[in-house]
Amino acid sequence: MKMTFRWYGSATDPIPLKYIKQIPGMTGLMGLLEKPAGVDWPEDEFVALKKEVNETGLEIEVIESVNVHEDIKMGVPSRDEYIANYISTIRMLAKHGVKVIIYNFMPVFDWLRTDLARVIPEDGSNSLYFDEKDLGAMGPLEIVRKTSEGSHGFTLPGWEPERLALLETTLRQYESIGPDDLRKNFKYFLDAVIPVCEEVGVRMACHPDDPAWPIFGLPRITHSLEDFDKMVHLHDSPANTLCLCTGSLGSNPENDIPSIIRHFGQMDRIGAMHVRNVKYLGHHHFREAAHLSSTGDLDLYEIMKAIYETVPDTYVRPDHGRMIWDEQGRPGYGLYDRALGAAYLNGLWEAIVKENG
Ligand code: DNO
């Protein structure tokens, strides 16, 4: 298991790289360049990022995310140009040692919450929160406004302004696209990129829908074991994998996370893991919890055991943390609670390794 940390680059991430390096057991980053979906990433910028990261003693073998342009998801003719850019980015990243590229195939929205800083009454910390009842009352444009207001001026992953500017038009275009059409477009994309990944030694890792059900009537095709079974067979290759996010899939209590990990782990189709906990508050209603099992509804010990048993060499990152100790930062991506999460997951891991040693 390689413990990693998501970092947004020194221009916009208030967390210094050396703080990340100081978290015990931290091996590297799930890093990114903040680029709009569809562009060919400039090599010099990635080389500079890699140099900075390596000089701190960290690796950058996982990139999150190279976002998929909406035209690819909608299957319109301009997709070929964006796919060509994607392929060129894959080749460039592989040349500089990247092994896994995380992405998602969610129409319009990446992850979605109705509150980015809901106070947790028990201890006064706050975390990301979702209640479908609030969503119904707000509608897509309102939720976008609220999310950008709550982001404290940080760009949020998947909520890039240029993408959101087109929101109304995009939502209308999706009215005629159903889940099977979206899956067909997904296959077209995978058929183009996966052979390149095989050639250059990179694995694509698809992040699940978050939350794990359809929203605003948009088609969503990656939120259950069955969905991902279809997805891995769209283009059958060891390079076509999942980024198995316990919190996203786990937002639906019907998803049994340890058995989903074992299922895809045994097939060698897990490229990376996001590990976090969720507290259920009702139907389609949850908040993000600390990583410790007893603070939420997922069993993190079972999750780490499933990883140990089936994909012991995978990349893991402590996913979203709460905001604690008055930290101000990008919602979900502060330093303190994610560092506590990494320490806890490392502790579970050490115990599992020794139990099985
Ligand atoms: C949210 C993240 C997602 C994820 C992307 C991958 O905080 O987990 O934004 O990185 O969906 O493309």
Describe the structure in your own words.
The protein has helices at residues 17-21, 43-55, 70-74, 79-95, 132-149, 161-164, 167-173, 179-200, 225-234, 246-249, 257-266, 300-310, 336-356, and strands spanning 2-7, 28-31, 59-64, 100-104, 115-119, 126-131, 203-207, 240-245, 270-275, 277-282, 285-289, 315-318. The chain has a single domain (2-355), classed as TIM Barrel (Alpha-Beta Barrel), CATH 3.20.20. With 357 residues, it is an alpha/beta fold. The strands form 2 sheets. It has an 8-stranded parallel barrel, surrounded by 5 helices. The structure holds D-mannose (DNO). Residues 64-65, 102-104, 110-111, 157-158, 207, 245, 274, 332 line the site of D-mannose (DNO).
Question: What attributes characterize this protein structure?
Answer:
357 residues; alpha/beta; TIM Barrel; 8-stranded parallel beta barrel; 4-stranded antiparallel β-sheet; 13 helices; 12 strands; binds D-mannose
Please give a quick description of this structure.
By secondary structure, the protein is of the alpha/beta class. It contains 13 helices and 12 strands.
Mean pLDDT, to the nearest integer, reads: 94
Radius of gyration: 19 Å
CATH topology, which one?
TIM Barrel
Class of secondary structure makeup: alpha/beta
The tally of domains stands at: 1
Shape: globular
Can you list the strand order of the major beta sheet?
Answer: 1-2-3-4-7-8-9-12
Topology pattern, helix = H, strand = E: EHEHEHHEEEHHHHEHEHHEEEHEH
CATH superfamily: Divalent-metal-dependent TIM barrel enzymes
Task: Give the DSSP E fraction (strand runs of 2 or more residues).
Answer: 15-25%
* Count of alpha/pi helices: 13
| CATH secondary-structure class | Alpha Beta
Low-confidence stretches are: none
Ligands bound to this protein structure? D-mannose
How would you characterize the largest beta sheet?
A: 8 strands, parallel, barrel
CATH architecture: Alpha-Beta Barrel
Number of strands: 12
The helix content is 40-55%
Alpha carbon gap, first and last residue: 15 Å
